[in-house]
Structure formats: C-alpha cells, structure tokens
Amino acid sequence: MPVTVRDEEPADIAAIHRVVEAAFQQSMEADLVDRLRADGDAVISLVAEEDGEIVGHVLFSPMSASFPALGLAPVSVLPGRQNQGIGSMLIREGLKQAESRGCRVVFVLGEPAYYRRFGFDPALAAGFGSPYAGPYLMALPLNGEMPAERGRVDYAPAFAALG
Q1: pLDDT tens, position by position, 129-162
Q2: Peptide bond into 122 cis (omega under 30)
Q3: 28-38 and 13-24 are packed helices; what angle lies between their axes, rounded to 10 degrees?
Q4: Separation CA 22–CA 123 (nearest Å)
Q5: Contact at 8 Å (CB) between 36 and 160?
Q6: What is the pLDDT of residue 144?
Q7: Which structural domain, as residue segments, surrounds residue 128?
Q8: Rounded CA gap, 118 and 57, in Å?
Q9: Which terminal residue of the chain has fewer beta carbons within 10 Å of its beta carbon, N or C?
C-alpha cells in the first residue's frame, strides 16, 4: 500500500510523538511538537501513513516577521523508513499548504545539502536577525521573491525551550 500524506488528527498524537522521538533518538523534538500543538502553534501538521501506521510527520509553526512566515520544524521519519522520499513528500505537501494559506516565506534551520532541493537558500535568510542566524538558517519565498531582504524573525516561543 502506498504512503499517503494527510492532516494530523487527534488520534495520531501518541503515534506522532513516537515517530518524532524515534527519528531524533531523544524526546526533545517530540516534546517540542507537543508544546507547539498545546500552544496553538501547529499551523500545519501532517502525517505520512502506510497501512494504518504513522511513518512520518512534519510541522510548520508561525514565525514572527514583518510578513506572513512559517517555520518548518521538525520533519521526522521512522529510522527504518528514512531515505525513501517520505520526508520529501511531507515537506512538499506542507509547502503547498503554506502557500495556499497566504504564507509568503518558510524558514528552516537545517542541513543546506538537504533543504536546497526544495528551494531553501541560506543567502535569502542572511539578512534576518534570529537566535538561529547563520549558515543553517534558510528561507524559501513561496511566490518567487522575498517580501523583505532583512529584518528580525523568531520561531514560536516553544523553540526557546530547546536552548
């Protein structure tokens, strides 16, 4: 049976926690997802499902910026299912939903070699002040151009707990 991507449902919460914890081999990111959801900051939360089992998850949360922006984090796939395109499916569907909701830019903190394939670019985020500023903070304009070249961007408050 193929992998399908769909919106998170309340019955998925425990399985999502397990997937995120397994993907990162610690509970910090899974706790972050739970906190973002509890704070009302899970704007887009998608699962990848196969044969009734949740095998992946992605979350987009609001970012404070001078334009509508979301942060992509975390993206999680069960260790035995990684490198099979599941994470890419989740990210692409999330980006499509973000654009349809009027989001102008998605930011991600991650490995440039991975996220560039989706169009994320560290140079587009370089002018933005953030606790996460640096070569791993990347931006992707959803309409083809950045609405601003500089400013301040911050992730949802739950991210501060990561330290």
Answers
A1: 999 999 999 999 998 789 999 999 999 999 988 7
A2: no
A3: 150
A4: 32
A5: no
A6: 78
A7: 4-158
A8: 17
A9: C
